[in-house]
Amino acid sequence: MFLPLSFRLNMAAAVIKKFFIASMFMWIAPLAILYGFNHNLLPGSTNLSPHAMTLVSGFVAVISVNIVIAFYIYMAMKEPVDKHEPDPKFLADAKASVSQPTGKAPTSSESIKKRE
């Protein structure tokens, strides 16, 4: 089954778009979390010591990146998979070229004599 070129290009564009969006979230989410913790925008962050706030904000930022990656993997797994079938003429030509004799191959006794 061969897909038209325009359909394959649209699929490629959709994949690139998803990759770009996931990449943007991988930058935006941790920076927004760090900004929120440092400017006391998140509830409960005012009760933390500076050391604890640094640890918690870093941990939550790393977790956010892993969540984005997991979501991107999930979306990639949902992509349609079209099994590629090779061209039948190409397969026939390849099988014919493999089965064609190329000449007289030396027998095992002849190759032993040549080595001696």
From TrEMBL:
<keyword id="KW-0968">Cytoplasmic vesicle</keyword>
<feature type="transmembrane region" description="Helical">
    <location>
        <begin position="55"/>
        <end position="74"/>
    </location>
</feature>
<keyword id="KW-0256">Endoplasmic reticulum</keyword>
<dbReference type="GO" id="GO:0005789">
    <property type="term" value="C:endoplasmic reticulum membrane"/>
</dbReference>
<protein>
    <recommendedName>
        <fullName>Vacuolar ATPase assembly integral membrane protein VMA21 homolog</fullName>
    </recommendedName>
</protein>
<comment type="similarity">
    <text>Belongs to the VMA21 family.</text>
</comment>
<dbReference type="GO" id="GO:0070072">
    <property type="term" value="P:vacuolar proton-transporting V-type ATPase complex assembly"/>
</dbReference>
<keyword id="KW-0472">Membrane</keyword>
<feature type="compositionally biased region" description="Polar residues">
    <location>
        <begin position="97"/>
        <end position="110"/>
    </location>
</feature>
<keyword id="KW-1133">Transmembrane helix</keyword>
<dbReference type="GO" id="GO:0012507">
    <property type="term" value="C:ER to Golgi transport vesicle membrane"/>
</dbReference>
<feature type="transmembrane region" description="Helical">
    <location>
        <begin position="12"/>
        <end position="35"/>
    </location>
</feature>
<keyword id="KW-0812">Transmembrane</keyword>
<dbReference type="GO" id="GO:0033116">
    <property type="term" value="C:endoplasmic reticulum-Golgi intermediate compartment membrane"/>
</dbReference>
<dbReference type="InterPro" id="IPR019013">
    <property type="entry name" value="Vma21"/>
</dbReference>
<comment type="function">
    <text>Required for the assembly of the V0 complex of the vacuolar ATPase (V-ATPase) in the endoplasmic reticulum.</text>
</comment>
<dbReference type="Pfam" id="PF09446">
    <property type="entry name" value="VMA21"/>
</dbReference>
<feature type="region of interest" description="Disordered">
    <location>
        <begin position="94"/>
        <end position="116"/>
    </location>
</feature>
